[in-house]
Write a structure and sequence with these properties.
Elements lengths: L1 H6 L6 E2 L20 E3 L10 H5 L4 H9 L1 E11 H7 L7 H9 L4 E5 L4 E6 L2 H5 L6 H6 L4 E11 L2 E6 L7
Parallel strand pairs: 2-6, 5-7
Antiparallel strand pairs: 1-5, 1-7, 3-4, 3-6, 4-5, 6-7
């Protein structure tokens, strides 16, 4: 099960405006690029049946139909500390791990300064607490990763949803 969670990560809401607008406080650039940890999903990115079952309006259906499969590369961050204080990198690993393990959102900060929140794709298992990505991402705090999933957009936000289970439940 742990390798399935390792293989499929969920990326969610992205702040597409980037952080450069805040005077470099949240700079996404790093002097040295670390190797990238590539996650292979247990299955191809797609909406699961539980996500389709959660559709209750035509608007919900349109959102899912407009989603695109994308791959994102960047640094794993604790979204709460990053947005509040600009914390990231190796110096923030102990704090970031603690925050994520205690329920704070996980994100991927791209080299372009876009922040993606990480969310498990499987709707019903996620809603019912049957899947979690917090431990796996906590172990990857400040590492560079590459993740593929389903991306939806809303105004200046983007969400990437990554499969975490090898089969639908």
């Amino acid at each position: 099960m742990r390798s399935a969670v390792l293989g499929s990560l969920v990326l969610a809401w992205v702040l597409s405006a980037g952080c450069a607008t805040l005077g470099g406080f949240f700079s996404a650039q790093q002097d040295v690029k670390e190797p990238v940890i590539i996650f292979s999903s247990p299955v191809e990115p797609a909406w699961t049946s539980t996500t389709w079952e959660s559709v209750s309006t035509p608007q919900h259906r349109r959102i899912l139909e407009r989603a695109q499969v994308r791959t994102v590369t960047g640094e794993v961050v604790d979204v709460s500390c990053f947005l509040q204080l600009g914390k990231r990198g190796e110096a923030h690993v102990p704090c970031g791990q603690k925050c994520v393990r205690n329920g704070q959102p996980v994100g991927i900060l791209t080299d372009e300064g876009r922040l993606y929140l990480v969310i498990a794709e499987e709707h019903h298992p996620r809603r019912d607490g049957q899947v979690s990505i917090k431990d796996r991402f906590a172990d990857l705090m400040a590492k560079r990763v590459q993740v593929s999933g389903m991306v939806t957009e809303y105004k200046d936000y983007r969400a990437m949803f990554v499969r975490t289970l090898p089969e639908e439940q």
